[in-house]
Write a structure and sequence with these properties.
Number of strands: 0
Helix content: over 70%
Number of domains: 1
Radius of gyration: 21 Å
Strand content: under 5%
Structural class: mainly alpha
Mean pLDDT: 82
Shape: globular
Largest sheet: none
Length: 279
């Protein structure tokens, strides 16, 4: 009986090992390992998440409340706070993601990057795993903004599928901007220079989107830039899913397609450039 039991266990282990050898399964497994390694850092230093609480509070309670009383921005049937809340959520995730490259430079200085590059994990798994971890960090911002929105009596769509959709779009947006940040870090390779470039990029991305005002009131040249800004499509989808009866300008299908395509392209570029951080 023991012999048959051991043979069965060996067969199960062999099947599991063969299953893991499939290219796509192997890729997913190694990507999730990198993601888990990045998320584990939060257990040792959760102060980053705590410090990020302040930003959405200031935008919604100060900036949002003031402009809500000004009534100068056309938002249709929505209140200005309801219009702005999804933009603040996307902005918070953008700020978390765009400075993610600074961690890559730290890893290079500490010698951790060399260990990653010498591992059998594909470069794409390394980049995508880090990007997914940025998205998971962004989920904490969603919790904060949803709580604030409830306190401000913003009509939210709390349907489970809508909530899941918001998380998916947050994840896609974080993948795009954190990988973009990684690419910049691989090019500049200096923390001080990276911080300056990161601050320079966040404001144009944020203000040239539909985060705090509709695209229709922008000048024509800014509308063109907004239409190629991934943040615009992320906010459009989140607003439609987050706020009750909020329309989608582009449609969820187009929003998802644009962000997915942008994610694939930028992760591929990032996987090609990532080894440069070690040189």
């Amino acid at each position: 009986m023991d012999s048959e039991k051991f043979q069965k266990q060996d067969k199960q282990q062999e099947d599991l090992d063969n299953w893991k050898k499939w290219p796509i399964i192997n890729f997913i497994t190694k990507t999730l390992v990198i993601t888990e390694l990045e998320i584990r850092k939060l257990k040792h230093d959760p102060t980053e998440l705590i410090s990020r609480v302040i930003q959405p509070i200031m935008w919604l309670l100060i900036f949002g409340e003031v402009l809500a009383h000004a009534r100068a921005i056309p938002t249709g049937h929505m209140s200005y706070l309801a219009f702005m809340a999804p933009g603040v959520l996307a902005q918070s995730v953008l700020f978390v993601s765009i400075f993610y490259g600074i961690a890559v430079i730290w890893e290079r200085d500490l010698g951790i990057v060399y260990k990653f590059l010498s591992s059998p994990a594909p470069r794409t798994s390394l980049v995508l795993g880090k990007a997914i971890s940025a998205g998971i960090r962004g989920f904490s911002q969603a919790i904060i903004v949803y709580i604030l929105a409830l306190l401000l009596k913003i009509p939210l769509n709390l349907n489970i599928w809508a909530l899941l959709g918001v998380l998916i779009f947050i994840l896609l947006g974080a993948i795009i901007f954190s990988t973009f940040s990684l690419i910049i870090a691989c090019i500049v390779k200096v923390r001080e220079r990276f911080m300056g470039i990161g601050q320079l990029l966040t404001m144009p991305l944020f203000f040239a989107s539909n985060a705090i005002y509709p695209i229709a009131i922008m000048p024509r040249w800014l509308q063109i830039f907004s239409h190629v800004n991934p943040l615009t499509y992320e906010i459009d989808a989140i607003r439609h899913l987050m706020v009750l009866n909020a329309p989608s300008v582009y449609g969820l299908g187009k929003d998802f397609g644009v962000l997915l395509l942008a994610s694939i392209i930028i992760v591929w570029i990032g996987s090609k450039i990532y080894p440069n951080i070690a040189t």
